[in-house]
Amino acid sequence: NVGTAMLMSTSSAVYRLEIEGTRHNSYTDIPLLAEVQPLLQGQLGLASITAERGQKVISEYVVAFLDTTLKNIPTSLFDSVSPAYPEVTFYGQ
Prior knowledge:
2 strands; two-stranded antiparallel sheet; mainly alpha
């Protein structure tokens, strides 16, 4: 796709990750709120990852990215697939 081609042609580090079982709203508060408000469960789409696991995986990778990018703290999360997060497909930089 055009967006991926554009990202991969940049001279800066690019990380492309996909988290199996997530959908668009998995990256919002909706999965956590749906646990206490059943009316929101329809907003989850076909997400199969639990709210807690999704938030943990997303948080770990966002913090690792920010630490690496802003604080120059190295991480192995972007080197290859992590055994701690088998639901993440890593496409490298």
